Amino acid sequence: MSSADIEVTLDNVAQVLENDTRVKVAGIDVDGVLRGKLISKKKFLSIAQEGFGFCSVIFGWDMHDRTYFKELQISNKENGYRDLVAIPDLKSFRRIPWEDNVPFFLVSFFDPETREPICACPRGLLKTAMDKWENAGYKAMAGAEYEFYQFRAPGSNDNPERNSSNTATFLKNNPVEALPPLTEGMFGYSLTRPIHNQEYYYGIFDACEQFRCDLEGWHTESGPGVFEAALQFGEIKDMADRAGLFKYVVKSLGSKFGITPAFMAKPREGLPGNSGHMHVSIVSKEGKNLFARETPDANAPYPDVAYLSDLGRHFLAGLLTGLPDIMPLLAPTINSYKRLVENFWAPVTVSWGLEHRAASIRLISPPTASAKATRFEVRVPGADTNAHLVLAAIVALGWYGVENKLEIPVPPLGKGEDVGSASDQGTRLAKNLKEATVRFMAKDSMARKVFGDAFVEHFGGTREHEVRLWEEAVTDWEVRRYIETV
Fold first, then answer.
1. Which CATH architecture has domain 138-472?
2. CATH 3.30.590.10 occupies which residues in the chain?
3. Tell me, what's the pLDDT at 222?
4. Is the pTM of this model over 0.85?
5. Cα separations in angstroms, 157 against 29, 196, 253
6. DSSP 8-state assignment for residue 283
7. Which residues form the GS catalytic domain (predicted)?
């Protein structure tokens, strides 16, 4: 029986783990990085209900374990980097097929005094955002698409068992452009390129199914060594978990084949970046799509929304209104903004349109899609994002639009229009992380309205840390350009 066939509860968890001696648990930090450990089965069964202490420093340091230059509220010297309470989510049970089927559970983080979700816990933030929808009788569905480059660790052609950590060693002594891609050339939707690395390619697809983060589609994208994965559509909180775990699958299998998958937004200059598009819809408890309008609205404000319900229009209005203020969640790194530039099929303005892939928000609805498939594709996020934070932002802004009955603030992009300038096509989104963070943390920002001050101050502080490190860095480009000439 596979993990997909089992619903684990407190009543049956001991039976499910009967033949196991160890369990792996992991939580998710603000950068979307899995932080976890291997524990004994005995220990796991003793903490399955009440949780266990987990050092809060994972919310006090960055993705390279460097403590933030500014002390943040959750984890700092003053509180001694205290423990948080990590409670396993038994519904998240799966087995890791490439690690001898060891049992795996995700955890969520709670304040040890109040037992409330800490504001920075990505799973907790999404749950809090969804509580408003669920209390009103709604559910949310989502799908994720990720593009990513893949590089072959130098020497791995000779020895496939070489660990991909060789890549980090290689980059200490060589320019990044010298890192060899998995395959050469531009060949999207190729049927032959995957055969070059067939065991790895099919291994990922099969492992995703076994690890309960099933793929709907899996193909090469245009770019040297670039693949794209579409994860199976599902309930939004589960989708966020599966999106994060998909990266875990790819990175784990990549290490076995001497391959380094790169989910950073723009790994290569002069080539398209890596997107992380999110599809979202709202449904009734019975599963009926509530964005769909049964008959076209002859009095629609724009023809593009003739088949979009009033709920859908208010949701869209909330997204468009708040989009400029939540950019650090959709573009969280310095590198994110190298992807969000003109003329690279990446949106740079507050824009939307029916089946318009140049817009920040693409509406998918009749007459080009079935009513039950009506949804929004948010095209701003890159593959470097934390899926929980992205989806929390989408549903929180959507709820704000619905609750306040907002009207769509800008007309749709016309067919043939792109987003190459902001002069007549909506507000230009932030051009860099510093600009985005300032707007995110402003006293009147939409981020504060939908997430509250505690989260904004914490996450904003983590982004200020990224900006400061970048401003202090001396890049290869600077050295090459100025070392001899100034």
1. 2-Layer Sandwich (3.30)
2. 138-472
3. 92
4. yes
5. 34, 12, 16
6. E
7. 122-486
